[in-house]
Write a structure and sequence with these properties.
single chain; 171 residues; mainly beta; 4-stranded antiparallel beta sheet; 14 strands
Length: 171
């Protein structure tokens, strides 16, 4: 059963999308060597690769809520590593959420105000984080006993994710 038909965006050879509770479809297209963030509208796919940030050549959207989208971007502007990004409804509204000197980061989801994901710092393991729209607003959610943590969802009060604890198992 097809619940929501998405027109396949050219020039991409493949695409990945998710749909939020409001019916907004977001994801990315792949050309064979480049990923581009996409948002689908009634008119088709809109390329959301950041136009207001210099040096971002690739991007992906992982989650959305209302008029806010989150994911990550890559290019010379991020030191050629994938870094967390936030959009507010347009390609030219992108915000780099990554702290300076992070090895990588991803924003997985948003409730329309807060964003959650992880950063990988110079000391190694991913650390779960919560943002409020800027890199400077970052709050570490690591409970202190995890070796690798990621935040996957937020409702504005609670954050859900996982903690790869000292026993090596996911919690």
């Amino acid at each position: 059963t097809i619940l929501y038909s998405l027109p396949f965006p050219g020039p991409f050879i493949s695409a990945d999308a998710s749909i939020n509770a409001s019916g907004q479809a977001v994801g990315f297209g792949f050309t064979g060597n480049v990923y581009q963030a996409l948002l689908w509208t009634n008119a088709g796919a809109v390329n959301f690769n950041p136009t207001n940030l210099t040096g971002i050549s690739q991007s992906m959207i992982d989650g959305s809520f209302g008029n806010q989208q989150v994911g990550n971007g890559y290019g010379t502007g991020t030191g050629n590593v994938w870094q967390a990004m936030l959009w507010n409804g347009t390609a030219d509204s992108a915000v780099d959420l990554a702290p300076i000197n992070s090895l990588s980061s991803v924003a997985y989801n948003t409730n329309g105000t807060q964003q959650v994901g992880y950063i990988q710092t110079q000391d190694g393991d991913p650390i779960a984080v919560l943002w409020n729209g800027t890199a400077a607003s970052r709050v570490r959610l690591n409970p202190g006993n995890g070796y690798s943590t990621e935040a996957l969802f937020t409702d504005g009060t609670n954050q859900v994710g996982y903690d790869d604890g000292p026993d090596g198992g996911d919690h």
